Amino acid sequence: MLLLNNLEFKRSEKTIFENISFSANSGKIILLKGSNGSGKTTLIKTIINILEPTNGEVFWMGEKIKKNIFNFYKNTTFIMDKTTSAANLTIMENISFWKNLSLSKIKKDEVIRLLNILELTKYQNTKVMYLSMGEIKKLELTRLIIEKKKLWILDEPYNNLDSSSIEIISQTFADHADKKGIILLASHYEPNIKDLEIFNLN
Amino acid sequence: MQLINKIIIFFVKEFKISIKNLSDLFTNIVFFFLSIFIFIFSIGPDKQVLSTFGIGILWALLLLSSTLSLKKYYHDDFNNGSLIIMHMGGLSYEFIAILKIISHFIFVQLPFLITIPIASLFVNLPYSKIILLLISFFIGSLVLSCLGSIAASMNLLNKRNFTLSSLIVMVFSIPVIIFSVGLAQSQENILSLLNILFAILLIFISISPWTSAVCIRLALANS
Amino acid sequence: MLGFLINPNKFNKLTDIILKPLFYLTAVIFLIGLILIYYSPNDYQQGSTVRIMYIHVPSAWLALLTYSIMTIYSIFALAFRIPFGFIINSAVAPIGAVFTLVCLVSGSLWGKPMWGTWWVWDARLTSVAILFIVYLIIIFINYSFEKIEVKEKIIAIFVVIGSINLPIIKFSVDWWNTLHQPASISKLSSPSIDPSMLKPLIAMTLAFTFIGLIIAILRIKTEIILRKKSI
Fold first, then answer.
1. Is A95 helix (H, G, I), strand (E, B) or coil?
2. Is A52 an interface residue toward C (CB < 8 Å)?
3. How far lies B70's CA from each of B151, B169, B188, C25, in Å?
4. Which chains reach chain B with 3 or more Cβ–Cβ distances below 8 angstroms?
5. Nearest-angstrom CA–CA distance, C141 and C90
6. pLDDT tens digit sequence for A147-185
7. What is the DSSP string of C78-96?
8. Per-residue pLDDT at A64 exceeds 90
9. Which of A88, A89, A97 sits opposite B9 (nearest CB)?
10. Whole-angstrom distance, CA of residue B95 vs CA of residue B99
11. SS3 (DSSP) at A99
12. d(CA C74, CA C85)
């Protein structure tokens, strides 16, 4: 499904990464592992087409993503190390923005159940700026469920999370893989998920 | 249909955010009025002088006040990654820039339009000139929104010297100022000045989405 | 053949050979220009103040030439990804700024005895003053971004948009009836300037162009070295 062919990225003559090829088919969870500065974030940005690779191609469903970028985006949820929630909107307002932007048909009670699991229900109508870092991160991760996309690409999803939330997130990943989804993680933390495929960047 | 939905969602979000930041907008408007007062204190309250210089003063101060809000243009969306999310939601950067220009025009510039009749009382403008001033400001502020989009997107990665964006807006706004003030002050050739103003507007409308999109891409790639 | 125009290495090689002869040539032309100015006649109206022209006109010509070169290089650099264009931009902008300033100051000194005022808000003066501010903004952009890859592209974009100003400057005296005298040299049919004045003017223009060229070459070389270091 997702195929990286001989990807290479140079920033002003300095090679960040080169010769990266792997494919991710349905039901796979791939962990991009590497120390700080090994180019995890750069690789993810290249896959998502924010950066242009100096060499190589990324394919989605057998098509070059550059040719049909919006088709690729239609199937992708991208979680950055930043939080994309608007600080002075409430949790529900942020969620409704994401929901409508991705044209997802998620139901209201499903959202409530999701917030319940992540222990965010009592903050429903609180502005995001009053939440703690961990809570904002959890809110960010609800996008995975809300947008209902096939491919999940996550950059450092475990930052700022407590152990119980990590447990929940790992469980969610496993469920998504069972439902023929694809997950691409970049993290220096190695989560406890079975069938985890590790791709080492160093 | 989906696109229209997304546009509506975008404006709903912008509207909510600007409602919650209403005090920022009022600060800008108070800045506008206070600077009018200071102008009048410094050149003296002579009614004759004020009515000749009034339109020029109003336009210059409107320009200055509108450059105050440049930092709000793309910065919040850029810093928290909403630009990427919107792009991945199916909107190209050019289209995001167009939407941003329109929303800046509606939520930042139009409130000034409402205050202009009040402001023109202070500088003793005759009634017929107020309408011309409103027309010229309506077109001119759309140009200013376009310029603001260019300047703000250029300075997304500029962390030290943000005054630069105001300079960029002011340099390119010179023809707008000349022809807008000319339009508001003229008696006869209103139509030809209006045509020139429209031409400037069309030029900047056609330039600014592309330029902003290039700058946004550049900033995202290097952040 | 013209590879030195876009390739830093070829540029370095060529300019290493060319720089010294160019220096002597410039000195000779400059000297000839000064002698010619000394023996040039006074204007029947302006007296000897007309000699300010021999600084004013060449620096104005260079201010515009520098910006045109920057515009062309910016377009090429952005469209065809030629990084040398970005080097040119950041190296050449201060030169253009200085020549614009010389043009403004000498014009102002010329204006005082002739028009009786240091400054008038005439179309050409205003547009040249704006050109000066545009140059300054380019220099400010150069100093306010941390990353070279960002600032060079932003400068190029700004230069291209700012080039709207060029035709306005060039044709302002023809479009609007102004105090500034219309072009007297570049008229296609016959120049409306006396040959005894035209000769020193041409010499000085050549000399100024070569001085600008030498400084530009030195600055571009420095810029190339600086970039190699920072990478």
1. helix
2. no
3. 8, 9, 36, 50
4. A, C
5. 10
6. 888 899 988 888 888 888 888 888 888 888 888 889 988
7. HHH--HHHHHHHHHHHHHH
8. no
9. A97
10. 6
11. helix
12. 6
Tokens coding A57: 């191609």
Is the ipTM higher than 0.85? The answer is: yes
Q: What is the pLDDT of residues C63-91, one digit of tens each?
A: 999 999 999 999 999 998 888 889 999 89
- The DSSP H or E segment spanning A176 is helix A163-178
Contacts of residue C135, Cβ cutoff 8 Å, sequence gap at least 6: C67, C93, C94, C96, C97, C100
Residue C66 Cα, gap to closest chain B Cα (Å): 19
Report the chain B residue with the minimal C-alpha distance to residue A46: B221
pTM, rounded to two decimals: 0.90
Q: Which two three-digit tokens encode residue B40?
A: 């009048």
Q: Phi first, then psi: give them for residue C17, nearest 5 degrees.
A: -75, -45
The answer for residues whose C-beta is within 8 angstroms of residue A151's C-beta and 6 or more apart is: A1, A2, A60, A75, A76, A77, A181, A182, A183, A184
Give the chain C residue nearest A15 (alpha carbons). Answer: C231
Asked if the C-beta of A74 comes within 8 angstroms of chain B's C-beta atoms, the answer is yes
Q: Determine the Cα–Cα distance for residues B172 and B159; give it in Å rounded to an integer.
A: 22
- Hey, how many other C-beta atoms are within 10 angstroms of the C-beta on B167? 18
Q: Give the position of tokens 């090689």.
A: C13
Which residues fall within 8 angstroms of residue C194, CB to CB, at 6 or more apart? C41
The burial of B75, by beta-carbon neighbours within 10 Å (0-12 exposed, 13-18 middle, 19 or more buried), is given as: middle
Strand partners, A10: A15
Tokens encoding C52? 């300010």
Give which of C134, C141, C154, C169 to mutate to test B binding, by max B Cβ within 10 Å. C154
Print the SS3 string covering B22-79: HHHHHHHHHHHHHHHHHHHHHHCCCHHHHHHHHHHHHHHHHHHHHHHHHHHCCHHHHH
Minimum CA–CA partner of C129 in chain B: B171
Output the six-digit token pair for A76. Answer: 């992708």
* Chain C closest-CA separation from residue A14 CA (Å): 8
* Contact present, B153 and B74 (Cβ < 8 Å): yes
C4-37 exposure pattern, b = at least 16 Cβ within 10 A, e = fewer = bebebeebeeebeeeeeebeeebeebbebbeebb
Task: Give residues 4 to 23 of A whose Cβ lies within 8 Å of C.
Answer: 11-14
Contact A100 B6 (CB under 8 A): yes
The continuous run of DSSP H or E covering A184 comes out as: strand A182-186
